[in-house]
Specification:
CATH superfamily of one domain: Immunoglobulins
Number of strands: 24
Shape: elongated
Radius of gyration: 49 Å
Number of helices: 10
Helix content: 40-55%
Structural class: alpha+beta
Length: about 675
Amino acid sequence: MSSRLSYKGYLISLVAFCLLVSMIYHQSLKKPFNKEDRIELTNGATKPPSAIQMRVNEIYNQIDQRMPRVTFAHKDNTTSATHSKVFIKNPQTRYCVGDQLTVRVDVYDYLGKRKTYGGDYLRSRISNPKTRAGSSGSIKDFNNGTYHIDYTLFWEGAVVVTVFLIHPSEAVSALWKARNSWYGYVEHEGKFIREGEEKVTKCGFALDTKEELCEYADHDNEEYFYCVKPQNYSCDSYAEFKNWKTSRSRLSQLEASLLDRSNVRVEIPVNFEAVNVVLCNNSHLEKKKNCAIGSDLEYPSGHVKEEIWYPKACTMKTYHSSEELNACLQGKFLYMYGDSTVHQWMTYFEGKLGKTLKPLNLYVNAWAHTHINVDFERNIQVVWKRHGRPFEFLYFMTVREEHSIPREIDFIGGDAHTVIALYIGVHFRFYPVHHFIRRLLNIRRAIERLHLRSPQTKVIIKTENTEMPPKSKAKSQQKKKVKKPKAGPGSVEEQFRKATLEVDILQDHLALQSQVTRQAQQRKQELRGKLQGLQEDIQDERDEKQALYSEMTRQHRDLKQQSSARIRDLEGEVAGLKLQLSNSQHAFQLLKDESHRITEEKEAEIEELKNQVESMETEYEQILHSSLDRILSNLALAGQRWAKEALTVHQQYKHMLQDCGLNPLDI
């Protein structure tokens, strides 16, 4: 029994040892990457924070200190636009072009109670719907429920003040806290391709998983991105990516109610009419120099009128014709980096200079791919590239073009013929703000490096798009009635003087009306030309949409066919794998039965050998006993014989001694 147990124990120990060795080997090949490893390598506790990280923390803390931190139990305790008040601070009887207009805003909650803290997100504009003029205001928060908004009166005529409550301070506080606490607003996926096969896994800036990760790092700029590593795929097979906004939120139901459409961008009532601005003798704006690099920044930085931007500190040239635009761009290499708002510039160039500026076919259908347009005759090159992740796009895009703006700038040598225009903003809104701060800081560092090697390179930084107040219908102007003097007694000279005065007034009025008529006719011609242009643009847009719809339909059909073929292939693979699994299970069962049979045979052999050993032990014991009995019998007989012989010898020696006269007892 003990022999059989030792044999089984040996087999079990051998199998366990093999399994242990196999597990240790595979674990050594598949050590997962985790966040702690990266922190230890980059910003671990054992190393001081880098200069970039310290600067990011400094800027973040400055912003964070200005953010409101308020809580509320009911919507009635939040800022209400309809209960708040807007009025002019220190109103004047007359305003001249170039003067400053200060507006005071006092905010109240829904219960009509004055707010005692600030932090509300206000947006204000002055505008003239008739001339399509507009400008922003500088808002000062006194942190007690009162705000001052300062405007520069840039144009002559009516100035309409509009103040919007975009978000109350309670919503700003909740949004700031939620934004910087997680990455759940956007989902990322990466596609890995290997030998015609592909695998899609989860990606992101911070993945909470114990799976093995692929790290895609920009160590110089300290920016990192991760994807779950597919089994049997290398990290270098990462080929495409996509991302989309989710419906998840960390806001409570009460906080989310403040973000309903009816509670966002609500106009605060203004208790005064439009301000009339006149051109005074001493109010004209001083003559400005042409805009150039290095000009001081001001806020507000200018105003828009008739869809043309007029900077405050300098004079900007406007190009109306394609010839002027071509002359400006001749010999220039223009690099544009950003999102769809900068892509509109590329669309404008393609539409305005389409006869001479030709696009290169890069064989990519998505709009977010690189666009390159060239004019070989004038030596013009215009390039647009997306600004790199984060970049929200619902379809898979290649990662071959995935370079951040700092990296792209580092690739440019730069010279007097190079112009760089860049913008980031919208695609960073769904991520913690430190990503935006870090990218801006890295862009600044890249521009500084660029200007060290090429101070002549021009860099244009585009800010976020802002919205103007909705166009309102212009108030109908009331015609002033000229009161005719009543007939009365008087001298002929008096009547003639009055008649002459009336004639002069009528002539002035006629001249004014003629001028107005000429301006109206000129404006009519301009509007007719613009209308024709808009109609052509609409038709082009319709054709483009139709072509886009046809292309999308074709792509959908192709994708459906590819999906169907892929599904059939996968079903075939599944059937083959099922067959292989069935065969493997059958072979395993046969092997198991064979092993069981062999084990039984070995146990039977061991039992038989044991029986043989026991029978042999019995036989050997019998032989040993019989041999010992015979030996003992022989020894007894020999002892008796030797005893007799010894007695005989003793008697003989005794007689011999006596014969010699010796006493045997004395010896």
